[in-house]
Design goal:
There is one protein chain. With 271 residues, this protein is an alpha/beta fold. It has two domains: 35 residues; 232 residues, Spore Coat Polysaccharide Biosynthesis Protein SpsA, Chain A. Helix content is 46%, strand content 17%. It has nine helices and seven strands. The chain has a seven-stranded mixed beta sheet with strand order 3-2-1-4-6-5-7, with helices on both faces.
């Protein structure tokens, strides 16, 4: 039977090995994020496809906005999505509202006014609680979504008007199921904490996500600021309620089915 000293030694060595492997993985991803020229050439070809898109060949897109008690930022998000530069007859907006505070009434009033202006927007409110939380809300919205593609933004994001036209062309490859964009930081300079968080997120996107995209390793959806191909979501089994990391779960199930995911570092969505 191991003594306390031997036990602590085994723990120390195990932790050291884990840290070493994590560091080596980080160095590998850092190298790949900077030195994959083949992917850059492939991206250039896809960009041409996106730039040449016209009204007739643009697909129908559903924009899903999962919201829960976000009275301070909900209106800003909805206003930004309504300003997306995309044919109105090919854009559907779903507000997946699980709010149980004044956010519900705020959204209800906004949606009523927007409908009078001809905006194709739907307020989907689950009054029976929040089964499945965000995954449950996204799953509920999928029942009514008409889009060939699904763009998702959390309540604190502000997509630029050009977002859809800059991203939709990347789906020219029929095996691409997910396009993930980089997050920006509206409050980066608010405090030392927000600056540190911004640096951490930038490292995640510009090293981990970029390298995994370049080398076709398993890459996860970050939960917002991305677009899914609807058939990919369906083929992978849809959103599952049994996990709180529904974005990671669906991403891996989709890639196990043979779908590809790509990350676009030059398209930034502020949030």
């Amino acid at each position: 039977m191991l003594g306390l000293g031997a036990f602590l030694y085994v723990i120390f060595i195990s932790v050291a090995w884990i840290m070493t492997l994590y560091t080596l993985n980080f160095y590998y991803l850092s190298y790949q994020s900077q030195h994959n020229i083949i992917h850059q050439k492939r991206r250039g070809k896809i960009n041409l496809q996106g730039d040449s898109a016209t009204h007739d060949n643009l697909p129908v897109v559903t924009v899903q906005l999962p919201i829960y008690n976000e009275k301070y930022v909900a209106a800003r998000l909805i206003d930004a999505v309504c300003l997306l530069d995309y044919p109105k007859d090919k854009l559907e907006i779903q507000i997946l509202d699980d709010s149980d505070d004044e956010t519900f009434e705020l959204i209800k009033l906004m949606v009523g006014r927007l409908k009078l202006r001809g905006v194709n927007i739907h307020h989907i409110h689950r009054s029976s609680g929040r089964p499945g939380y965000k995954a449950g809300a996204l799953k509920a919205g999928m029942k009514y979504a008409k889009g060939e593609f699904i763009a998702i933004f959390d309540a604190d994001f502000v997509p630029a008007p050009c977002f859809l036209k800059k991203t939709i062309g990347y789906f020219v490859d029929p095996k691409i199921g997910l396009v993930q964009c980089k997050w920006g930081h509206l409050n980066e300079n608010y405090s030392s904490l927000t600056e540190a968080q911004a640096i951490s997120l930038d490292l995640h996107f510009l090293i981990e996500q970029k390298a995994k995209s370049l080398t076709h390793l398993f890459m996860n959806f970050n939960g917002a600021a991305g677009i899914w191909r609807t058939s990919c979501i369906v083929d992978a089994g849809g959103w599952h309620n049994a996990t709180l990391v529904e974005d990671l779960d669906l991403s891996y199930r989709a890639q196990l089915k043979g779908w590809k995911s790509i990350f676009l570092e030059d398209i930034v969505v502020e949030g």
